[in-house]
Task: inverse folding
């Protein structure tokens, strides 16, 4: 099994290096940051599927079916509306201003310190998120390839080195193309696993549909107001999560800004939002089938351990191989773009680097920043390996809090004409996440209410109000 997994990863990485070599010839900052604005829209749309679905999603979405059923789709429907808001409202604005880093919009309006504070929260979010996603794939590589003979930090160093070598020169120009490959492999893994599980169960297509009709775990909509998966709560949260974690996120928007025109970028987002729905449905169907199969053979694994348990021990070598390819592809697709986006944000927002040409000295600085971020992710991932799951989950949840300040300050830019105190912004933006964290602890302990994704909205609203208090008296809110 270890030999098959090792060979699979080596072949996959070799393909990524070939793509990197082809795309990195005669490239500069414009290729690394914005792909020279020559990327076909359909290439970005297809590749974004893999970028949006991380290794965590690859494992967790099928596993969540036992508890949350198919209610995750409620959020996906909200995501669709959120993506259309991004396409119709934010994309034209970004192209009109010719931005490389979208946080330049904050700089143009409020000043350099506000821009850097916003960029800092983005970097915090991505460091935590990318590290968590990579932790999962590194763990799979360690178990499947190295076993107990090699320490976790060695496996982490190997995986991060892989990502560095195929992204170091051309950045987003390479990533947009490798995203296509990664999405292809991820979807291939998904389809192959569904087919194999159906064969093991003796299911035809009609049997699958009958199972979906009869099994209560295939329930999509939840209209129980007291439920944590209440439709309105999930749908609205889905809208905000899409807008904030995509439209206001340098990582996701950097790929969209690599398209030649705003119109192309809008087409990319629209089609991506449509394609994402059947992909998520297939993940959920896979989850239901995995639970049915696990029950039929007496396997009690559930949640995040369900898919790996069945793939490695019960579904045969072909499924184990495609499972590894799928999870590596999904994790690489989200982690490589996150690292490139963080590099872009630091170079452009903090070092004021030219986003289009750049001197040889700029390229050296960019390399140093890229390597430094790799080192930071390595340190965080290694720390994860020494912690229990509760600490990992806490760090991942904490990353969600950092998007609130980004939402709040962008709301000021987009919906008001106020001029706020640029010097005060870096200090004030730290206050809302702290208040929200304390509120969440008090609410769960004394009111027995557990905040979910709606905390993002509260966090953003609080940031908006606090920053609004620093506005000049002569400014009025646009009504």
Result:
């Amino acid at each position: 099994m270890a030999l098959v997994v090792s060979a699979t990863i080596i072949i996959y990485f070799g393909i990524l290096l070939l793509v990197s070599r082809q795309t990195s010839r005669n490239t500069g900052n414009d290729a690394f940051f914005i792909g020279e604005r020559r990327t076909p829209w359909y290439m970005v749309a297809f590749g974004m599927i893999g970028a949006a679905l991380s290794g965590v999603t690859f494992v967790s979405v099928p596993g969540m079916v036992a508890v949350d059923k198919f209610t995750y789709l409620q959020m996906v429907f909200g995501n669709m509306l959120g993506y259309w808001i991004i396409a119709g409202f934010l994309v034209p604005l970004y192209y009109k201003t010719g931005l490389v880093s979208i946080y330049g919009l904050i700089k143009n309006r409020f000043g350099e310190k506000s821009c850097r504070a916003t960029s800092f929260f983005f970097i915090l979010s991505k460091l935590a998120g990318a590290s968590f996603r990579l932790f999962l794939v590194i763990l799979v590589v360690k178990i499947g390839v190295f076993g107990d003979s090699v320490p976790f930090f060695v496996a982490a160093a190997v995986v991060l080195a892989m990502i560095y070598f195929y992204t170091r020169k051309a950045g987003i120009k390479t990533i947009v193309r490798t995203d296509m490959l990664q999405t292809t492999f991820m979807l291939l893994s998904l389809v192959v696993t569904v087919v194999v599980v159906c064969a093991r169960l003796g299911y035809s297509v009609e049997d699958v549909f009958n199972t979906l009709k009869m099994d209560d775990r295939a329930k999509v909509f939840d209209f129980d107001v007291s439920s944590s998966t209440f439709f309105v709560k999930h749908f609205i949260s889905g809208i905000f999560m899409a807008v904030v974690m995509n439209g206001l996120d340098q990582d996701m928007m950097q790929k969209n800004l690599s398209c030649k025109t705003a119109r192309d970028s809008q087409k990319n987002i629209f089609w991506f939002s449509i394609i994402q729905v059947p992909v998520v449905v297939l993940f959920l169907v896979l989850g239901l089938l995995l639970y049915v199969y696990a029950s039929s053979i007496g396997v009690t694994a559930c949640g995040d351990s369900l898919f790996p348990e069945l793939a490695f021990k019960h579904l045969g070598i072909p499924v184990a191989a495609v499972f590894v390819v799928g999870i590596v592809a999904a994790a690489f697709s989200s982690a490589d773009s996150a690292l490139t986006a963080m590099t872009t944000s630091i170079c452009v927002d903090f070092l004021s680097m030219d986003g289009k040409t750049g001197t040889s000295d700029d390229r050296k600085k960019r390399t140093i920043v890229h390597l430094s971020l790799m080192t930071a992710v390595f340190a965080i991932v290694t720390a994860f390996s020494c912690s229990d799951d509760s600490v990992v989950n806490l760090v991942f949840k904490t990353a969600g809090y950092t998007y609130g300040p980004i939402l709040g300050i962008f709301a000021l830019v987009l919906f008001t004409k106020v001029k706020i105190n640029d010097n005060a912004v870096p200090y004030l933006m730290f206050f809302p996440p702290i208040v929200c964290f304390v509120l969440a602890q008090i609410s769960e302990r004394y009111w027995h209410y557990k905040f979910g994704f709606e905390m993002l909205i509260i966090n953003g609203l609080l940031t908006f109000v606090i920053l609004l208090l620093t506005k000049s008296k002569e400014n009025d809110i646009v009504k």
Summary: Residues 388-393 have pLDDT under 50 and may be disordered. Residues 262-297 form the longest helix (36 residues).
